[in-house]
Write a structure and sequence with these properties.
The chain is mainly alpha-helical. 67% of the residues lie in helices and 0% in strands.
């Protein structure tokens, strides 16, 4: 339902469509399993130089969820699956780095939320992820 609401927002939006509208739609589409539509929205905002830290965080969530969807896609060969999972994880981490560079994780509440965000679960055990959201992280 939320994806349909965001589609309607885009239809009624002035042009060009604000990046945050496309980002919210992409997140809703990936949650509803509409991966092609989510990818389309992500591509439309990826080169926008004015993407906020929050939008970058949400795009990281979209990329992480793509990685999960690919990992669970038994129709792909194991090699192709592994390659695509790593590519989507790299995208997710790149978006998170962008958000971090703007100061998104300065707020302890945001850091705590990111640590438990189910959308980012595939990243949780990666040192690079933990370094981004936890300034006190020391590799064990």
């Amino acid at each position: 339902e939320a994806a349909n609401d965001w589609r309607r927002v885009l239809e009624l939006s002035p042009q060009p469509v604000p990046a945050n509208y496309r980002t919210f739609l992409a997140l809703e589409l990936v949650h509803s399993g509409e991966l092609d539509g989510a990818l389309t929205q992500t591509v439309l905002v990826k080169d926008n130089p004015h993407i906020s830290a929050g939008e970058q965080y949400n795009l990281s969530c979209v990329s992480a969820l793509f990685a999960v969807a690919v990992r669970n896609n038994a129709q792909l060969s194991p090699e192709k699956r592994a390659h695509l999972v790593e590519a989507h994880i790299a995208d997710a981490l790149r978006w998170l780095k962008g958000a971090a560079a703007i100061g998104f994780f300065r707020d302890p509440a945001i850091r705590d939320s990111a640590k438990t965000d189910s959308d980012l679960a595939i990243l949780a055990e990666r040192d690079e992820f933990r370094k981004l959201i936890d300034p006190d992280f020391v590799k064990p």
